[in-house]
Amino acid sequence: METKPADFGFTSIRYYKAKRYLTRSETEHLQELIQDQDGIISINLKQDGLSVEFYGHIVSELYIMELLKKGNFPFAPEPRKSRIKRFIENLAETNRKTYGDQRLDCCGLNHAKQSEYK
């Protein structure tokens, strides 16, 4: 694991799971590709993926993913959402469309706005 000198700010850690086990040459190639980038603190490579600690105000997660794509990292597909999670997300979207982004208030539902009474 390569570590760089400390900087100021908050750090983020992101784990990228591989579709298959990485070979030794693949891990070495990814290590060389990522370790010298500004904003990346450390890399922890394993056979089934890698974790990257980085400063979010210097380097973005999207940039790290582009580096990994450039290094032919075999990304594992995102897991499917459970039925309950999809149901809750659909319910939240329906409520957002129906009631907007404002707070629900029993005094405000089905009533004209205060400015219309004045």
CATH classification, class level of the largest domain: Alpha Beta
Q: What's the rounded overall pLDDT mean?
A: 80
Q: Spans with pLDDT under 50 lasting ≥5 residues? A: 1-5
> What percent of residues are in strands?
15-25%
Helix content: 25-40%
Radius of gyration, taken over Cα atoms and rounded to an integer in Å: 23 Å
CATH topology of the largest domain: Alpha-Beta Plaits
**CA-CA gap between termini:** 68 Å
Per CATH, the architecture of the largest domain is: 2-Layer Sandwich
Overall number of strands:
3
Order of H and E elements: EHEEHHH
Structural class: alpha+beta
Give the strand order of the largest sheet, numbering strands 1, 2, ... along the chain: 1-3-2
The description of the largest β-sheet is: 3 strands, antiparallel
Helical element count?
4
Could you say how many structural domains there are in total? 2
Q: Please tell me what the overall shape is.
A: elongated
Overview of the structural elements:
This protein has helices spanning about 25-35, 60-70, 85-100, 115, and strands at about 10-15, 40-45, 50-55. By secondary structure, the protein is α+β, with helices and mostly antiparallel strands. It has two domains: about 10-70, Alpha-Beta Plaits (2-Layer Sandwich), CATH 3.30.70.100; about 85-115, no CATH class. Strands 1-3-2 form a three-stranded antiparallel sheet, with helices on one face. The longest helix is centred in the last third of the chain and has 17 residues, at about 85-100. It is elongated, with a radius of gyration of 23 Å. The N and C termini lie far apart (about 70 Å). The relative contact order is 0.16. Residues about 1-5 have low confidence and may be disordered.
